[in-house]
Design a protein that fits this description.
Structural class: alpha+beta
Order of helices and strands: HHEEHEHHEEEEHHEHEEEHEHEE
Strand order of the largest sheet: 8-3-5-4-12
Largest sheet: 5 strands, antiparallel
Helix content: 25-40%
Radius of gyration: 23 Å
Shape: globular
Strand content: 15-25%
Length: 396
């Protein structure tokens, strides 16, 4: 593995040429992401000088870009988010359910990210809540944390939602806690059929309201008759929902969330080599037992695939539903604790010293450590930003 190789290295070396080659076809969001990643933790963003209280060693610490697509800028956000989740986890089983769009629907999702990704997340949660609320299955209000991912291991467009779901919840009248059967949550086939129906119904409403656009190979589907035929074809497909075995407990849930919630399309740790314009990275082939393989992509193709997964400005890729919905979360969680005979006061949230499940601590601490002696580094001076280059956002 090439020590220290980063997505930023590829963007810095080939980003300008990629922008010129795709002039007129590169959106503002993609341009901002490229600029942020290239500038992250460099003199372009400024920073500060730190000195060790003990040995006097000094170093320059440059500022992070804090872009949510940057592989280097998720540690603090993840740690703070996980600290909040610690106070919300209950001592009950949790399940992991994945909702995946078929490739035919994924194509329209890519051209309508804000609309279709929101439909995907909303209907996945509605499917779980509806089936769980049915007395024939569970008859309870569950808590759901949904996380949108849009990539596969080879960086192709593959939109799907990871849902972490409580294995039980308050009864519909709020009188008692109803737990699911041991090791079993909800029937996957029933979930799949309802998810397909809800998603296609909402997609049709979006089409009818004129909220969808169709470009390139999909332009013909802008006609109502063609869109209706396309929906009929999707109704005949089996939609994939995968329900994994339950987690062992809240600590496993927290470790899982640490890996998935603030993940970007590819981590720097997966990059193996970058030479002669070719990027090589590791990927897992889940069709062959998760075997690790190596993929080689030309730099432009690597950047193109990476940019497939930029999200619209303001889009929330982590959402909460059921008794975890934002509106009255504290009151609903207090009710859950009462029904489980627990203290109604959540425990104290802790940001530091949590593991992400991969034997690596989170990449954030509340103070810097001196690499020479282990002492505390203190800020002693400010490093100003370098003058930024002119930024063009027009795509005409």
């Amino acid at each position: 593995m090439s020590a220290g190789l980063e997505v930023a290295d590829i963007v810095r070396r080939h980003g300008d040429a990629y922008r010129r080659a795709h002039e007129g076809h590169l959106g503002c969001t993609e341009r901002r992401v490229m600029s942020a990643i290239a500038a992250c933790r460099t003199a372009a963003l400024g920073g500060h000088v730190e000195a060790c209280d003990d040995c006097g060693a000094t170093r320059i610490a440059y500022n992070s870009c804090r872009n949510r697509h940057c592989p280097k800028c998720q540690g603090l956000a993840r740690a703070q988010w996980l600290a909040a989740r610690q106070t919300e986890l209950l001592p009950v089983p949790y399940f992991h359910v994945v909702f995946t769009l078929p490739p035919e629907a994924a194509a329209i999702a890519f051209q309508n990210k804000a609309v279709v990704y929101a439909i995907l997340m909303r209907t996945a949660a509605e499917t779980l809540s509806t089936i769980a609320g049915d007395p024939r299955h569970l008859g309870a209000e569950i808590g759901i944390t949904a996380v949108l991912h849009t990539w596969g291991q080879t960086l192709q467009h593959h939109p799907h939602v990871h849902c972490v779901v409580s294995g039980g919840g308050p009864s519909l009248d709020g009188a008692c806690w109803i737990a699911c059967r041991k090791g079993f949550f909800l029937p996957v086939r029933v979930l799949s059929r309802l998810f397909r129906r809800l998603f296609l119904a909402e997609l049709y409403r979006a089409f009818d309201a004129g909220s969808l656009v169709f470009c390139g190979d999909l332009a013909g589907q802008a006609q109502p008759a063609a869109f209706a035929r396309w929906l009929d074809a999707l109704r005949r497909l089996d939609w994939v929902i995968y329900a994994k075995p339950p987690f062992g407990g809240p600590k496993q849930v927290l470790a899982y969330l640490g890996r998935y919630t603030h993940r970007v399309a590819i981590a720097n740790s997966r990059l193996l080599a970058f030479d002669e314009g070719t990027v090589r990275f590791a990927w897992k082939d889940y069709r062959h037992g998760g075997k690790t393989k190596v993929m080689a992509l030309e730099a432009f193709e690597f950047i193109r695939r990476f940019l497939l997964h930029t999200l619209p400005d303001g889009f929330h890729r982590i959402r909460h539903y059921g008794f975890l919905a934002n509106g009255a979360r504290a009151e609903r969680l207090a009710r859950c604790r009462r029904l489980l005979n627990l203290s109604t006061e959540p425990g104290e949230a802790k940001v530091a010293d949590e593991y992400d499940g991969c034997d690596r601590k989170l990449t954030w601490r509340d103070f810097a450590i001196c690499p020479e002696c282990g002492g505390a580094m203190q800020r002693i001076a400010i490093v100003p930003r370098s003058p930024p280059p002119p930024f063009r956002c027009d795509t005409s």
